[in-house]
Amino acid sequence: MFLKMIKNDFNRNKLVTITVFLFITMAVILAASATNNIANLIQGISSFQERAVPADITVMHAGDFDQAEIDRFTELYRDHIAMQETMVLQNIDGSNIHFGQNQTMAGTIQDISFVVQNKHFDFILDLDNEKLDVKQGSAAVPIYFMEQYDLEIGDHIAVKSGGYEKEFLISDYARDFEMNSPLTSSKRFVIHQDDYNEMLKMQAGELEFLIEFKLNETGDSAAIQNAYQEAGLPANGPIIEGKIFMLFNAMSDMIIALVIILISILLIVIASLCIRLTFLATVDEDIREIGVMKAIGLAKKNIQKVYLNKYRFISAAAGMAGYLISFAVVNLLNSHMRLYISSDLTGSLKYILSLIAPLLVYFMIVMYCKSILKRIDKISAVEALRGDITESGKTRKYSFPLLNNKFFSTNIYMGLRDIAKRFRLYRLLLVIFITLLSYSL
Question: How far apart, in whole angstroms, are the C-alpha atoms of residue 253 and residue 276?
């Protein structure tokens, strides 16, 4: 009987039922995909951080530098500092880096540095998140430049600065936890130690130092930063905490996920509008049947179930369809994450978290339907049998008579009259329209 009732109702309101189903399905697809994306982001960054072992404190410095002072400071604060390493960057102007058909990187807003791989921590990785090992004559190019200039493995780049000129084969793409994100202003090319020494000898670029500290588990980052500044050690640049690098890596994908969730919420609201209008129209049509059910003593809950079961079935079916489709859609949404953070996003956590979306949407739709169905409780059996369905039990008032219309055509006037008399019915539609208009602007 339940399926027969759903089938009969579907045949009566095919377009509206399909519309509600599609909106709920799209809402679940987007919500589940966003949840999946967040789960992948958490897993990907955790794995990326574990492999790259980024610094907890990074001091950027340009100018005179004495490593012996840094070593003494490190020994003095061994209770906090586990390791210290200084990376020497050779900064090359983008106009001195050539590729393709006489093209350069002159237009980039990024500071470009050539470095060698660190020995102890802050490793630069390849696309398999393995520590880069670049051979002589080759270079690993940051992913940012791979995308911006369409550089591929096997292509060549040439550095021409002052009296220095050398061509490098692009052997890898570089994932750099500290400078990976497009939001950071610097990028690091990784080359072999011999090539680096030659470039340094020819003074091809301006030197900059990354003075990096890896703290113990009980190390106090704030205390070390204060002690470093009080000691007057080299700091001709910002001092950056490791958490900032994690934030930069997550920010782009997190914003995408939040926008998708907002769109999903908007779709749920639109679906709720469709359900509200459909329900009110159905009650108008079935008012006498409702009166008969009340007159014979049928419980309110049983009457509500007649209408509620349809939307339970639609929400459950749409939720299951959206949940399954979301795993195909998420691959389109996390392409940036796969490229910049991790190529292998696995694990069962995403399947569990993604299940939250269809369950949440189902309960939201059902609870909303129940709130609307309370309207039936306010209809007495006598009023229903007479066909007098009222708005919240209020007496019907025949205002805005047609004879008083002097400015509009009959159709326009009757439409405005209906909106004015049943504004509570159309107010959600007004909110949706304003929301869509503001979003498009």
Answer: 35
